[in-house]
Amino acid sequence: MTLRNQSPRIGSGEFDLPAVLMYLFLVFLGWLNIFAAVYDPEIQQSIFDLSINSGKQLLWIGTAALLIFFISLIDHRFFETFAFVIYGAIILLLIGVLIGGKVVAGSKSWIEIGSFALQPSEFAKFSTALALSAYLSKQSMNLSNLKSLFLAYIIIFSPAILILLQNDTGSTLVFSCFMLVLYREGMNPTILVIGIVAVFLFIFALIFDKIYLSIAYGILGLLFIFFNRSIKRKFSNILIVLGCTVLMAAFTYSVDFFVNNVLQLHQQNRIKALINPDADPLGFGWNVTQSKIAIGSGGFLGKGFLEGTQTKFDFVPEQHTDFIFCTIGEEWGWIGTFVLISIFVALFLRIIYMAERQRSNFARIYGYCVASIMFFHFMVNIGMTIGLFPVIGIPLPFFSYGGSSLWSFTILFWIFLNLDANRKQVLG
Predict the structure, then answer these.
(1) Count of CB atoms situated within 10 Å of the CB of 167
(2) Which runs of consecutive H residues, i.e. helices, occur in 228-264?
């Protein structure tokens, strides 16, 4: 057997070697950079020191290895059979957090048992992926049917609402990525387009003057009617275009009310920091400003491992978790960030390729769920460190410090590897 066809084997299936290697590399690279983020040159700490985050992360990596071992031994049919049982158990955990959870950084999203703390919202992602995959894989499923689509939304947004009640907006937004899965499985693309347009309208309303925007939307609507012959043929089509124009203008004026009266102060500040971080560089704009300084100071080749000055003097808050990408940018430079982004992109493409080769609808849909969740985290985490997205507390998969995050992404990813390893056992 050639090296190209060899892959790790646990139990009855063979695991995809490129995907496994990329997972191991990302976890290892994340561990190194967690150490770099907390390293104090005056103390000369060891990366294995259990009193600092790198040592604690090593323990989480060890327990993640145990999770991988047990997931690999489980029959691949278990995940589809018990998808809704797992989903229901996590829903109960989320409800339990609301009743007796611990508040950390303003979010009531942790279950504390002695010195051990667990964040169920992280595990809600893979449980929702399992339940949604089990539901959408039914032979009678048709997402053009409103009832079927509505039930899919119930599966997606039930845990999202519970997490929102915990005041964890960042984790709540992750569930929007399942819209990509629904689109892949036959949802009307109009729904996805409306969502994307709404996001852009929201951003435009924050940046530009409302009156000028409304005038611009009106002009665009009139031009669309004038130059589109198929619309001019029917008066009802003209009314539809004009109605959409009015709705866009109304939505634009509703943004200020939503931001000022619905969002909490820290959420308002995150949006302000995104639009204009220089407005309060020592206040709400501090995180983004310092993050961009740290990444930019690395230049092309970086300052070198453990040589990041922005890191050493704690200019960037939460640099071992949400802002771990800053460490890469400062110490490894443009080259390091390019390599890291390339590995993630390669991993996403590999997951999509693996999803498309599945014989089981459940496995294919679950693969797209994995790719969507991980891509959302990757895009938003890196985007918020360079000022493209608001700071909403989204960890970088396999990279950011934290047991709940590492465990949840490991379970999410290795369940799919298990399904893929046993794809030949599924009847075509």
Answers:
(1) 16
(2) 229-232, 235-261
